[in-house]
Amino acid sequence: MAVETKDLKVELLSLGARVPGVDKGRKAGAGPAAGGMFLFGNTVANVPTQSWFVSHSPYSVDAENGRYVIKRNGERIAEVRFPRAKFQELMTKDGMPYNKIALLHGADCLATTTIQNCVYWNTPKRCKFCAIELSLKSGATIARKKPEQLAEVAIAAKKLDHVTHVTLTTGTTPTPDKGINYLAETARAIKEATGLPIHAQFEPPKELSMIDVLYDSVDTVGIHVESFDREVLKEVALCKVEIPFQHYVDAWKRSVDIFGDSQVSSYVIAGLGESDESIIEGSELLAELGVYPFIVPLRPIPGSLLENEKPPSPDRMCRIYEAVAGILHGGGISWRKNKAGCVRCRACSALPDFE
Ligand code: SF4
């Protein structure tokens, strides 16, 4: 059965895959964790492998003569490869495993959470889909990655694994800059050591001029609205709904002025209870501003407050992706123009594959 790569990616992102005998990927952390990186066709996907619904997925991965194959209900669909990162086996001189400092994401992106604590974690304002402090609790990572540690890991990742860009995210700090100053400090160290293009993700700071500090060290930024539906946000991300939507718009505008079209992005999560129109109209607004709507299906990470939810259906995701890809095309926004980070990596969203 011939299956288009983009359709297979949508199915895998929503339904997950059973991977007996294969490393299931990181269990928690910021962003869509609890997945494995699948390389197939000409794309990469961060596929759920640990959530409850995976046991109902028609997809599984089997080993065949030293290779891996994706099967649907036992029928062979495509060959798949799992990226292996040599740098993740190393240790710093003071004995810190590199894989507690940063990881390979997608095919060629080095990713880390610079500050693994979030000011909202132990409060009712915590984002219910997030798992940022779970990986800290499990000992899989450390609370604060030092700039010199990240520089050391980035040099090795570039040399040994041909990493070509970097994603830095952060838990929100209890300071007005929301973690931006530390992102700038770590980005500077990585940039000086490797010259790699760098992406930084943060909540809109109180004073938007605080974003400017990233100008010389960072190439792209992510400011994540998560949902355009304020009622949905009230339910799942109280910290986000407290920030007026206009403040997001102003933060995106200021960032596009600094970093350029297609270099600013926002995660948009489908499956939180919003309508298709909310996502499509919101994405239209983003595209008009020059911002890339990085639309992902909800990832119910085990241990997060939404762990028992189900991701949206592949059919729904296809409808949304088709509509938004058309909007991006009309607005001249494309993942291909993006220099670093999630949009360039594209493992968590199939929107780039629909463009
Ligand atoms: S899209 Fe972003 S969060 Fe997802 S794997 Fe790539 S770098 Fe990581």
Low-confidence stretches: none
State the CATH class of the largest domain: Alpha Beta
Along the chain, the helix and strand elements come as HEEEEEEEHHEHEEHHHEHEHHH
**Count of helical stretches:** 11
Distance between the termini: 24 Å
Secondary-structure class = alpha/beta
Are any ligands bound, and if so which?
iron/sulfur cluster
- Count of discrete domains: 2
CATH superfamily of the largest domain: Aldolase class I
CATH architectural grouping of the largest domain: Alpha-Beta Barrel
The rounded Rg comes to 19 Å
Subunit arrangement of the protein: single chain
CATH fold category name of the largest domain: TIM Barrel
Which strands sit side by side, in order, in the main sheet? 6-7-8-9-10-11-12
* Coarse morphology: globular
Could you give a short account of the major beta sheet? 7 strands, mixed
Our estimate of the beta-strand percent is: 15-25%
Instruction: Estimate percent helicity.
Output: 25-40%
In total, the number of strands is: 12
User: What number is the mean pLDDT?
Assistant: 94
